[in-house]
Each structure stands twice: as structure tokens, then as C-alpha cells.
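cron nightly-structures :: item 1 of 1
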Amino acid sequence: MLKKRTQFYKSLLVLTDILFVSVAWIVSYFLRFYVELVPVYHDIPSIQDYLFFLPVILFLWMVLLGPLRLSEIGLSASTSKEHWKLFKASSVIFLLLIVLTFFTRQELSRVAVLFFWITSIVALSVGRFLFSYLFQYLRRKGYTVSNVLIVGSGELSRTIAERLSRNSIYGTNIVGFVTEDAGGQMFQTSRVPVLGGYRDTERIIKQYDVDLVIIGLAIERYDRLEEILKNIGAETVDIKIVPDMQRFTTLRSEIEELNGLPFITLQGSPLHGWNMVLKRSIDLLVSLVALVVLSPVIMVTALLVRLSSPGPVLYRQERAGLNGERFTILKFRTMKVDAEEGGVVWPTSSDDPRCTPIGLYLRKMRLDELPQLVNVLKGDMSLVGPRPERPVFIEEFRHTIPQYMLRSKILAGVTGLAQINEWYEYIPLEKRIEYDLYYIKNWSLGLDLTIFFLTFWRALFHPRREKESVSGKGDTK
């Protein structure tokens, strides 16, 4: 019931957006050519010419719904966050329209597009305000509100109450708890009263006109489940069970159904099915184009490495990637050939004598990692992901750092969330793992594009500061 209701209201929200985006596009046409806020020096084009672009605009909006989570705001998010996301979405569409008209050479007024950028922000904000107001009005009148009884005690049942109360889209009114020990007390972290014990469940359902019973038992108390179901009796309420699995979940937990059997995923990868196909396609396309476009830079860099010191141009090292599989990573050599004869020092200092004259500059600009585009083409790496590590260090870290091996659930990357956050100062290995796990848990194409853009931006305008020498192990060159 809760999932279907959520999907229904999100669909209504998307339809509301489509309506107000369409209105904004039409209003921008009339503002440009009939209100004459800006003088018109040529014949006024037909409105049909502009309506031709409307499906393109709506398609772009639908594409942005996922990465920016636009179908979720307006129901539970703060107003400031909502307006900011709407501003970003409208700005992206504005820029894409400018680029589209430039390459297709369509006769589309730049002023009209500018008006659309402004009116779309206003229209979407008004539309979402009206939707939210109507939504809350119906709630106050008691429409589509379900009375919910939570069965169980402890942290899980409190979490259920807090999550339901936090998001009004569910339309739930929590009437109270039923616990193992009857009483009129309240949980310390909740204002919801305890209405009775398990044996009182049927009476409470009738008394409070309960529509939905949610059972949230600790895993140690599952032996009471049969008793609880018997105490519900013949009442025709909806019954849902929230499994006590939070303590065991690590990455991308979800519930699936296979031929009528429920499967609970405690640990999984976000990259399967179309997600994997799409990410791999982008890796192939971008790395191939980058190798062609950057070929002059690559050749000049290779020549500088060759002239700066004797030794090979490329540095090869064994690394571990997806599921611990080993591969040979490629980089431009930034150190002398015998740099690691005295052991590994990580990270290098700003005056490390092992670096070649050109080596430190290549590191600051991250030009030493350009050959890894070949690794991306081969499928050893992705453009964005956790950085690959040496197998010998992995054997050590997996036993000393909790959840370290979870970062190998996806392909290693040329750049990643940890790397852009480490741009200005060194962060401990444990913190890097936190960034890597956050990336895997929250993976989306939008996040990949953000990380990729920030990598280029900081490489060009904010060269990395070299870190002070620290005894340890890690990503050496």
C-alpha cells in the first residue's frame, strides 16, 4: 500500500511538472514576441515552430528527474533544497537548448530561451507549491490517510515510526505501539503511546479503526510472530513485516521477488543490468574521444618524460580491481627507475628526491594518469570509481580496516569521490573508504558526471598540493 501510494503521488507530481514546464515555454514565447520587453527586429515566428521544441524540453526534464531526485522533492524536502534543485534543472535545460540550437542551426530566439529559463523556475516553484498545498489540505481533511499500528519494541519499531512520520507522502497516522509488555508509557524517543500488549492487538485495531499493522520485531523475538498474527484475529487490515536486517546490511540492500519467493539483498552492487551497460558505454565513448582529442598532450607528455630522465616512459604496476581481479595499471613515469628500492613511502613529499624534474608537475595536473584511459578501454577500470590498490596492501587492509573489501564491488576508477575531496589536503585511509562506500551506495550517472567535472575543474584551476611525507602504504607512482 505504501509503495503504491508513493508511486501514485510521485506520478502526479511529475504530471504537474510537465504541465507547468509547458506553460512556462508558451509564456516565454509570448513574452518575447508580443509583450515586447525586448524589441523585435524581424518577423514574428509561428508558435507552432516553438511548440515543436516542447517535446524535446519535456524529454530533457524527464531525464533529469532521476539524477536530481526531482520526483521526491516537494513532498518531504526542505523548501531551500527544493528551489535549488529546480534552479539546477532549469539551468541545465537552458544550456542544453542553447547548445542544441547552435548545432542544429534552428531559428530559436536566444531571448525567448532566456525568458524560459526564468519562467520555468517560477512556474515549477508555483506548481510544486500548489501541489504541496493541495496535498496537505487533503491530509488535514482526512483523505487518503491510513491509521497505522506498529507491533514491536526496541530500536526497529522506533525507526519505523520515525521514518513514517518524516515523510508525509505515505499518508500515515500512527495511532500507537503494541509491545510485549502492556502499558500506557511512551517510548523515550517517540511521542507515540504504547496502547497495549500483543494480546490486545485485535481490540486496539477495532478501537482505533486501524488500516495497517506493521510488525517490527527484533530478530531474537521472531518466535512471537505466530502469536501476534493469531491476536490480529479475523480483522481485514493490511499487514506488513519489516525484517530486522539493518545491522547486517552493507551495500545496496533491497528486497526482490523470484517466482513468489522474497529475497533480501544484504550486500550487492549498484551496477547490473542497464546501469552496467550505460556506465560501460559512457566509459568507452569518453575514453576513446579523450584519447583522440588529448593525443597531442599525451605525445608531448611522453616526450617530456623521456627527456627528463633515463628509463621507460610508462610505469606499470599490478593493481586489484573489480572483485579483486588483478590487472596492470598504466601511468606516465614520475619517479626515477630505482625509486622504490629503499621501500615504499606514501604519500610523497613536495621535495621528494625520487621524483623526476617533470614528475611533480605531472602529478599536480594529474597528467601522469592519462595512460589509464587505455585501462578504461580494456575494461580494467572505469572513468569514475574507487582508486585501485596493490594486492599486497589489500591483504593487509582487509584485515585491519572494516568493510575495506566492499570498495571492490565495482570497477576501479581513474578518479573518484575520495580523490576530489583529497585535492587540497591529505585525508586518512579510513576517510577515503568512507567516501568510496558512499559513492557505491549512492551511485548514479549524475554523481559520476559531477565527479568527472570537478576533476577537470580542479586539475585546470586548482592544482593539487603535494602532501607531506607520511610513513605508510598506498597509491605510489
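cron nightly-structures :: done
The chain has three domains: 2-140, 146-247, 274-461.
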